[in-house]
Amino acid sequence: MILVLAGTTEGREVTGLLQREGMAVSTAVLSPYGAELLPHKDGNGLVGPLDRERLKGWINIKDIQAVVDATHPFALQISQLAMRVTAEMSIPYIRLERPQLELPRHPLVKTVDRLEQMEAYFQAGQSVFSTLGTNHLEQLLKMAVRQKARLIARVLPLADVVGRCAEAGLSPDQIIALKGPFSQELNQHLFLHSGADLILSKDSGQVGGLDSKIQAALALEIPIVVWLRPTLDYPLLVNSASEVIDYLRIWRNQ
After folding, report:
1. Which keywords does this Swiss-Prot/TrEMBL entry list (predicted)?
2. What are the extents of the domains in the chain?
């Protein structure tokens, strides 16, 4: 059986491909919403945070023969955990990561390596439009308060997510609860409607809609700050679900 650490478009795609190849698949996702998006819902998976003991226990119970890590490029802790556990248990680890987008060389496109570096671009009286989700919401709010800026958060339209925004102190007009994908035109409309003066995004690749956000920001002449994805030394890194299948075919036939 193959374990897919999912929760992304790539995770859903590779899970479906593995099933079509006739391979037994188990999945692990962080949230029930992530589980709902998977191509199969047979209960053969984990939902919720993973630690070393839970991951090792699941690998033993399900006789997992290989782990495909298709988590988000910014989910460092789970990738590091998966690499450690697979090394301890001597099973293959395959990192499936969406290709990076080549960022345009433009004065309005800024890059940072860490979240806190974004604060340097906040200005008093500005509306800062965040597409970073809710994981860093409290830190972003503190940054906005320090710089006397107004934060707007685009988040998933889920009750617990919107509730988290409200609990953090965002008013209804600071919350845009929508599910992507977002075209350039829709991004432009949202940026204009919210009065955005600055856009924040992760380096989430084309799959994550980074290209359409950049195009929309440049069309409106609004600066966009991109949080560059962190890098890890993966034992095996591929950029497509088909490459995972190719590797596992060879590995299975050895």
Report:
1. Cobalamin biosynthesis, Oxidoreductase
2. 2-99+231-253, 109-227
